Amino acid sequence: MKKAFVFPGQGAQYSGMGKELFDRSDLAREWFRTADRLLDFSIADIMFSGTEEDLRQTRVTQPAIFLHSVILAKVMGGRFSPDMVAGHSLGEFSALTAAGALSFEDGLTLVSRRAMAMQKACEMAPSTMAAILGMDHEIVERVCAEIPEVVVPANYNSPGQIVISGSFEGIDKAIQQLQELGAKRALKLQVGGAFHSPLMEPARAELAKAIAEAPIITPVCPVYQNVTALPVTDPVTIRNNLIAQLTSPVRWTQTIQNMIAGGAAWFAEVGPGTVLQGLIKKTDRTVETVSAGI
Predict the structure, then answer these.
(1) Would you call 89 a catalytic residue per the annotation?
(2) Which of 149, 155, 182, 183 has its CA 20 to 30 A from that of 133?
(3) Is 68 a catalytic residue?
């Protein structure tokens, strides 16, 4: 039985996240202090005692989830023994760092720059996302393709659950058409912009330079990347896929299916929340899912 470790993305944050790690591990405290120095503000204080609104700040959310995930993987020591890893959107940076392709410092720096670049792109082109439930992804793809405004599939989360991303007008038209075609639910999400769509091109261009300059080495195991849902160990391919990620869909359903086809029967979610475990169970109920712990 192969072990897969998966890392959550934006939306998994909660007040108090990482506090148990900090309290119980000297090593964790060192990593959190390193993060405070690198970011030039005390992210640990916001994670442990900040409000939900504090944690929704762009400069905080993505680094906070990255820190919780990566520090947990490091504190686990030998119990973090993946045959393969994957991360959902932001979580891909956590997965690459935990698997040794990126250093802790480089991973955190990229995540911080990613958050800021995405915020700027959102301000340049106000936009949104919507969850579509109970609809085959082929129908969602067709409807999006036929709408003249920007609207694209952004997250293939599980069979029958897909998130679309685009302009307000494009999203409104897609919701109306998909409801008419029989979608169980089609609802706008409370997000800052159209992530994983062409509207993130300014952020992709800004982040590309930082990714191009970051040292990336061969990870300890294959990383199933969002853009292709395929296992990768080659640093050049990892880099190219990371650059493409911001404007490409997160193929999470396909990723989990491919990991299972590759032998994974046990999945541990590393980081805050249990969202990924739920998505994995919706994809294949035969596999075991757990929360990683210290």
Answers:
(1) yes
(2) 149
(3) no
